[in-house]
Amino acid sequence: MVHERAELSRNTFQVLLVHLSHALRVHALLDHYRDPFDRLLVAQSLLEELLVLSADLRIILYPVEDVW
User: Fold this and answer.
1) Are 45 and 16 in contact (CB under 8 A)?
2) Per-residue buried b or exposed e for 34-61, using 16+ beta carbons within 10 Å of the residue's own CB
3) What tens digit of pLDDT does each residue of 30-57 get?
4) Residue 12 CA to chain centroid, in angstroms?
5) What is the pTM of this model?
């Protein structure tokens, strides 16, 4: 666990917790894509105004800014 925290800090990454608002946004997404984890990433991206890093072309069916 100590190693993981050091890597997060070294790379200036922040942990994004899953909140109720994220889960509710997942429910409101159009049904373009059924993978629950990816849908959660899309919801978090939309609510937190974050980029999505993915090679999965189905992600771009949602109005998120995709990087890959």
Assistant:
1) no
2) eeeebbbbbbbbbeeeeebebeeeebee
3) 988 889 999 999 999 999 999 998 888 8
4) 17
5) 0.82
